Amino acid sequence: MALSEQERKLLEQLEASLMADDPKLADRLSGTAEVRVHRRRAALAGLGFVVGIVVLLAGVQVHPAISIVGFLIMLGAALLGINSWQRVGDDGAQPAKPAAPKNTPPTSDFMDKLEERWRRREQGDR
């Protein structure tokens, strides 16, 4: 349901007064601080991944144990980056995909087909 013009102006005035009175609270309620933190973490994870590649390649020249450390740095950075990037995407307020009813035929989506096969296999229907 769309807001009327008067309601929209009143809402903007309330937001402006909240920002003026308590900017920390307004920033926390809007979620922009969390998005910035997760974006920064994702960027640092990307940098850590590049550092891991450099350490891995340097370890090939020097000692194999250094290559293992480089790989672990890459793995940790990748996991941190994926986790942070997913949280940035979650804060984007995109609507979630509705769950499909159990008795619907499989759709063209690959994962839906796999889930339907799994359900049939668990029920004993092959």
From TrEMBL:
Sorted UniProt keywords: Membrane, Transmembrane, Transmembrane helix
Transmembrane segments annotated in the record for this chain: 42-60, 66-85
Sequence ranges of Low complexity compositional bias: 93-107
InterPro entries noted in UniProt: DUF3040 (IPR021401)
Domain of life assignment: Bacteria
Compositionally biased spans, kind Basic and acidic residues: 110-126
Annotated region described as Disordered, given as residue ranges: 89-126
UniProt protein name: DUF3040 domain-containing protein
Organism this protein belongs to: Tessaracoccus flavescens
